[in-house]
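Supplementary Note 2. Why include the ligand at all?

Several targets in our set were suspected to adopt different conformations when bound, so apo predictions alone were not considered sufficient. For every target with a known small-molecule partner we therefore ran a joint prediction. The input for zinc ion is given below.
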Amino acid sequence: MKSFKPKFEYTSKTTGGQPLRLIPLGGVGDVTKNMYAYEYGNHIIIIDCGVSFPDDDMRGVDLVIPDINYLRDKKQNIRGIIITHGHDDHYGALPYIWPELGVPIYSQKLTCGLIRAKLADNKVPTDRVKELKIDDTLTLGVFKLSFYQVSHSVPDSTGIVIETPVGTIIHQSDFKIDWSPVNGQVTDVGRVAELGNKGVLLMTIDCLRSDRPGYTSSEKNIEPEFEAIAKQTTGKLVFTLITSNITRIQQALNVAAKMGRKVCFVGRSMENNTQVARELGYLDIPSGIVIAQEELKRFAPNKLMVIMSGAFGQPGSALMRAANGEHKHVQILKNDTVVVSADPMPSAEMSQGVLIDNLSRIGCRLYYSASDSALHVSGHAAAEEIKLMISLAKPKFLMPIGGGFKQIRAFGLLAADLGYEENEIITLTEVQPVEITSDKLKILPPIPYQNVYVDGLGVGDVGSVVLRDREHMSEEGVVVVVLPVDTQNGKLAGQPDIISRGFVFGPDETDLMGAALEIVKSLFMEHKGGRLDVRYARHEVEKHLEKFFFQETKRKPLILTVVMEA
Ligand SMILES: [Zn+2]
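The joint prediction is reproduced in token form.
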């Protein structure tokens, strides 16, 4: 059914025949690790620089970052990096990628605060982070940029307008259309319509929920759900959610204030993000309501709300440790209630499943979005909202971003409904540069691309980070730890075995491996008994051995732990 075809005359301002290139450096068909380069002659700008979270089979890997190989011999052409909003899958790779590029980073106030905190946490200088206001314009080489506000699950999210020699591009990263957003930031559809009337060449647009019909509901609907749960809770109330979801944290705070509960933020990224948001005025925290972790024991459980990081069950995260009975300050008891208010990305479904399982074993009251859909509202536009944006912008060409292949396909159907022809929609299956002139599109052959892994201590609660790609791993060697474990009681069921290849040689090897064996054994001695979470055990073993090997040899072999369940 073709019900709508945008009608407009597109006129190019300049010609000259040189095309603009768009290169999706975060990969294609990847929901996360957003990174796009726009290149015209020797002018390059980069939009976003995000991380992705590894699949379960990427052992020992904490993060995956974009491959910037395409940029390596063009670094001098890069004019700046612009970040659309403060989500890790849009700025989380900056600590690893920025040091190599060294160019200014531009974004809005809250996003800049979050970026600075993350860079500082990784000991990366923050002086090139430049704060913009929503109505500022920015000229970077031949590109003239302006911004407009959009609703999303973190304040200060933006759409980016890029005026280029071949025409106007709208880079519409994550957004939704929420007329009653918690933070008052409504998507500026007026601006988009205005741009549409002047003529838009290309719109790249968030397609994550293009396969969901209708509209995404308002974030405001969450608070009454939280409140209803809080009223029924006789013990501690534990909330977990994505730590950048500042608007939802505000709603949890509102509930705590109403119910007379003290609030404690737990987990490194939760503490960092809420501190930044509070300092910059994006969180309204009633005075005296927040307490330190050490103070938790001073209050009765029914006077406490704990807001924790680890909603996806990341190994080593605060909530995962609490669920395993191994957090220093937070114990989760049968009488407590845990609310998991976050839908996992596909790659995190399994680890969130482990978290839910471990919490269920404790027997506490548990609410999570898969069991109660009212507990989570997406920050992304569904089909009708996407159609509205496209109809207002009336771009000549469209490119879905931030979705998997399923959503890219759904987006194609939705755009066809609006009257777009197949050759007007850029759907890539590999990392291919796209060349655009004022009236033509050309998709170039794929460029070499591989995922780059960051492993070591990047995600959890420890600061130092080891960056390495596969080549590096082969240089540093491999250590395999074979652990026979009785998962019922969490004890070793036999002698662990440690095998190394390409790491250390000669007489030192026996001593080093002997000492490593003792470390592994002592970790199991510390386990208090009860069922063992295998993922967590693996994470702990790898973390401690990595530290030990580095101390002894100044090398970081890849450590693989194989758990044999007895
Ligand atoms: Zn986002």
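The first helix runs from residue 88 to 91. Residues 85, 87, 90, 152, 174, 379 surround zinc ion (CB under 6 Å). Comparable summaries for the other entries are listed in the accompanying table.
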